[in-house]
Amino acid sequence: MRSIWRTLDRGLARDIGLVCLADALVGVSYGAIAVGSGFPLWAPMLLSLLVFAGASQFMFVGIVASGGNPLAAVAAGLLVNARHVPFGFAVGDALGRGLLGRLAGSHLMIDESVAFALAQRDAARRRAAYWACGTGLFVCWNLGVVAGAFAGSAISDTDAFGLDAAFPAVLLALVLPSLKDRASRLPVLIGVVVALAATPLLPAGLPVLLALAGVVAGAAAKEPKSLEGAH
Questions:
Q1: Does the pTM exceed 0.90?
Q2: CA 203, CA 181: separation in Å to the nearest integer?
Q3: What is the pLDDT of residues 132-191, one digit of tens each?
Q4: DSSP letter string over 63-100?
Q5: Counting C-beta atoms within 10 Å of the first and last residue's C-beta, which end of the chain has fewer, N or C?
């Protein structure tokens, strides 16, 4: 771990620190929303330790809190985290050596740690950025969740502080960068239309699953065309 921190330059360490700070603040909102929505104090903390995927955790809490089936919430979270499969191929060399090292590295695989790793040119800096970002975010996120959970137990109405806006804001932040790619706009549009059409008709949680399925189907439909264009 010491060699990892020595490999980072000051600018990269500063950028990682800022991301960790922002993630801690989002963790506070997640913990407060979860407890304020009726979850026991330990639930968001345990989810954060075992799952460590902000978007999936927000989605799970949002679906269950709105009356959705917990199984549908879990399925939605798994669909969101399906992006980790290609992530693993992209940063596999940074995960570490040995079974335990690779398991720990896989647990730290989130959007930010992958993005910082892929931005580095050489293998040593890629590994250092991945582990520094992943470890820092894991610590800061969980500390933020603990603080938010205790705050949520003391606040009767988290919506009054605007914390309920964190869930859609996080998902929107994840989607917006991909909209720069023209090929990604159609799947996202399909998902939006499916979710809006299904929400009045289906129980909570199912519209999210259908929307995610629509996004996947739209992306699959665009893929062959993009491959044909490449040839």
A1: no
A2: 32
A3: 989 999 999 999 999 988 987 776 555 555 555 555 565 566 566 656 666 667 777 777
A4: HHHTT--HHHHHHHHHHHGGGHHHHHHHSGGGS-SHHH
A5: C
